[in-house]
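ping. complex inputs:
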Amino acid sequence: MQYFKRTILAISIVAASLTGALVASTSSAQGSSGDATIKEIEKYRQALGDGNPAELWEARGEGIWKKPRGPKNASFEQCDIGLGPGKVKGAYAVLPKYFADTDKVEDLESRLVTCMVILQGYKYEDAKKSPFGSPERKSDIEALVAYVTSESRGMKMNVTINHPKEKEAFEIGKTMFFHRGGPHDFGCVTCHGADNQRIRLQDLPNLTKKEPAQRAYTSWPAYRVSQGEVRSFQWRLFDCFRQQRFPELEFTSQGSIALTTYLAKNANGGVLTAPSIKR
Amino acid sequence: MKIIHFTSLSVAAFTASIQLCAAADAIKPTQAEFVMKASFMDRGQAKVDRLNQDETQRLCSQYPEKRPPEVARRIEALNMKLMKYPADGKLLGDWKEGEKIAQSGVGKQFSDNPALPAGGNCYACHQLTKVEISFGNIGPSLYNYGKLRGNTEPIQKYTYGKIYNAEAYSACTNMPRFGHSGILTEEQIKHVTALLLDPNSPVNN
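pong. complex structure:
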């Protein structure tokens, strides 16, 4: 409890000083995004990182990972998420990848669903029923995602595109990135195709360029202060498409994994900082 | 005669092979579109048919950065043809209403109530006034827009038209076609035009 109070206090102090800095820098440099603003935002992020509640999701996820459950009363400990059964350390850095047992390219979330079905005996529909949590109803998937990704913290993204299905996924993902549609003519590229762009005061990473693509991808999943939840990369895409005025991206659909493959490959070499903390 | 016949045959064969190449190039987007459509679900007002592209969207997706000048001209021409101006000939509304529309980001998302009017969300991408410091930079600053250009009839027409369908002036712009795509009503576009051009608007003060 004290931990939370401390975190919230720290957040509000930094937020207050940040607002001051923003006002100052905006009035001094009308229109241009000043270095001072970026520095202040960086300080804000660092302060937030000191007490990242994602740790609570990581701990809960580890518990779920190790606990026998489902109709087959099995844990995730024999689940292959990319480096072989039971290997968690560093696995997130190689995802998405092709898996022979399902003959599909899979990301972390889809692989967790696969293991719930194959190892634990859940029905497919039940396994993917609750992908995103709320304060009233927590999601096991988000906790598992927090745990698994935390086991790759500090490692470099290393996605390989060798299998024909990996190549196909990358190409489909790339097409999706540039696909403009809907009532607003938006595509991912509208906001994420150029340097130093902002919506209101929110920075938008240029995902077509190596350095910002690495920095953005490696910071997901993340604890979102505004939502009080750890959000997975599947959630990130889901909510981007909502704001793009597109229909709902289906959780772990082929397209969602293809787009993740494109973005993850572009982030190769970037050091994973996830689960991070964001506003 | 025979020679001519031979030539036209080879031309036909050549044309066919070009078409085949074009078809082979087109396989990727077609398959990607198939996968994409299968990966989305209708939700609220946002149906899967929103993934279908008109010619402008298709060409702009095909040429995301640079495009041949004839493609750009084609996009601008076909959108100019679809331009509609108010029947009453009046292009300026109330700038105060325009400011509200510029602030509001509501509309067309599956999480939005379709019964409520949509906003223009101008501040998401543009600076407009000195007062509002939370503005984006995807579009240019519009502060002093009217002061710099005046409030003449051609400027009013251009401004209304740009908001109604920006693709008519700038192919593959990031700016939505607010009138053409039914995001804002005619009356709302008049208000936003007034926000930009009215001498009393905070945009020009």
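Chain B touches chain A through 49 residues (CB under 8 Å).
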